[in-house]
Fold this sequence. Notes:
single chain; Transcription Regulator spoIIAA; Beta-carbonic Anhydrase, Chain A; 3 domains; six-stranded mixed sheet; 58% helix
Amino acid sequence: MPPNTFSLTPPADRVSRVARRIGADLRASLTFTGLGPDARSGLSVALAALPITLGVALASDVAPGPALVAAIVGGLVATTLGSLPVVITAPAAALAVLTGSIVDRHGLPGILVATVVAGLVQLALGVTAFARLARLVPQSVLRGFDVGLGALLLIGQLPRLLGLEAPDESHVFDVVTHVGTYVRDVSPTAVGIGIFSLVTVLYLPRAVPAVPAAFVAVVVPTAIVIATGVGAEALPMLEPGALGLTWQLPDTASDLPALVGDGLLVAAVCSVQSLRTLTLVHADRTEIDLDRELVSQGVANVVVGLVGGIPVSAVPKRSKLALEAGGTTRRAGWLASLFLLVLTVALVPLAPRIPIAALAGVVLALALRLLGVRELVRIARVDRAEGAVLVLTAVSMVLFDFEGGIQAGVIAALALGLVRGSRGRILLEPGSEGAPHHLELGGPLTFVHVASLDRLEPQLAKLPAEHGLVIDVRHVEQLDHTAASHLLSLVQRERARGMRVAMLGPLADVQRALVAIDEEAKALFAMREQDLDRILPRSRPKYAHQRMVRGVERFRSEVRAQLSPLLAELADGQEPHTLIVACADSRVAPALITGAQPGEIFVVRNIGALVPPSSAETRNDEGAAIEYAVKVLGVRNLVVCGHSQCGAMKALKGGEVPADMVALANWSRTAREIVPDLSAFEGLDEATRATTRAQVENVMSYPVVAEKAAKGELTVTAWFYDVERAEVLEWRPDQGRYVDLGARGDEQEESDVRRAK
Length: 757
């Protein structure tokens, strides 16, 4: 069984197995091969981590020491124990507000206890193989959490950016009131430094990716302050013993129950943040052991708390930086901690000269990244309901507190998921005899189906990769952001092990949901059988029959039950309201186009939608069907429907029929007798429209049709189905042209302009 699935293996056995894997990983890393790239990676991470860690300390209302201890020690422990070689663990901006809240209520001893409790909880979840619980949190809630944190960080750092003292209370309203009260004391120097740091962190990576922007954002203002002597509020002194091992208990035992609750919240945030980092940075890796990663993060937090540090989690930006800088083994993380220690020791004399406004600018840049405005807009466009959950979570966090915001978001997301998710369908059928494996998804798929999608991984892992995989999403009515993210992760894992994957027939909303997460998902969309041939690796001689069988099975299991009252009524006879004469072309689907239910339309299909006149002496099945539908069934509407790019019209307009196709040659000879001279028309579609009108004249030659039409009991009309636009046009004799069916006035003029373009 893959390591990132639920397992019934006893915890002792699991721990023993993980311990063996850790030993093997460490032995593989303790070599000198490839040391240069890992050293460059570690140095790059350390240069970026130093100012960010100081900024997180500032936002967390703690001295620099506990944050630096956490970054050095936590990074070292988590790198050693984690399942992936290059994952950077440190105090994260996403934890700063929560850490600061606990520090405000319980002081530094309180956050140390909460950190240890959080680590023990993570350790327990990892050992008991419940790491995947963190993945069940809806993406809308997670993004709302990020947005709320970003807003809180943004507002909380405004006083420092403006050169003002921080208020005694950290609530949003208190901060805003404080800034308003002391706005006259704003320091232009602090504002200038803060804006410089903010712009540097946001835009320098775009111009020069190799330069650690956060380091530049702090070093340059510090150098200017030292060189010019400009007055600016500076960071508190870093004492020589600032990184010494410290451990304190709260002053009163009454604080312990509250700190346990805080520790549970810290554990939840750290776990979700860490697992999200893995899926964001290492989405293509198949060997991620989520339980082991949670164990590594848990041990790191326990150790960090015991030595006097604030909580840590895996961080995506620095993990990605480590990979981009060339890191390939655990040495990159180890060296990052070592270089950070060296930089910290070197920093001690300079600490009192580092402008707080520079660090505030770095934190503001991190806050803006957490807000992620573009992603918010994408989520809102894909799914307004999920966007509402996101906004509710963020607003609740800003106006109330962490617990209230998360609870409000989870409750709203659960209610939304339960309403939407009751009809989701997931069915995997292994391929055989050369056919690809088939995964059928149906109904609305939401975050409540994440566990079901995850349970597919061990099943897919057992299937031969060379067959390929078709993910049939034709019947997925809705795909929320969470389910879409997990579905794409599943696809990436299968492709990473050599499986070719195609997504069959996604609806427009489903396409938008997938593309909003990954633009490259477009390459997987297969709207036609030919697209499957392009994407999948081999011929599929029996696949078409299998698809028909699945369609029948789906009709039997789902559609039949829904339509059973109607089908029972139709058992004794039919009373269709419309007869449609349509081409046999597979692109023309009268029931789909008209939205008709069984029993509503009587359909006659042939090559070209041709109708011989009533005087025709040859076999006339079309005429017989018309007379039966009009006289016996009593249809009240008769439509002859041609379509764009019609192969029959192309053949009649000048194409040649192969000599070995005798029946088709006979059809071509007799068909030319009942169509206009198509050589007179320049375009194929123009010829088809004229032919369709001519078929209406042939229909009217039947006495039963002419009689009913004359009495006003039957309407006869010509339609033209534009396949490319998926639009139906109707012939209007009073206007002498085809118009979009149902369009009137300005709407039709706009349609004509679009079609002309």
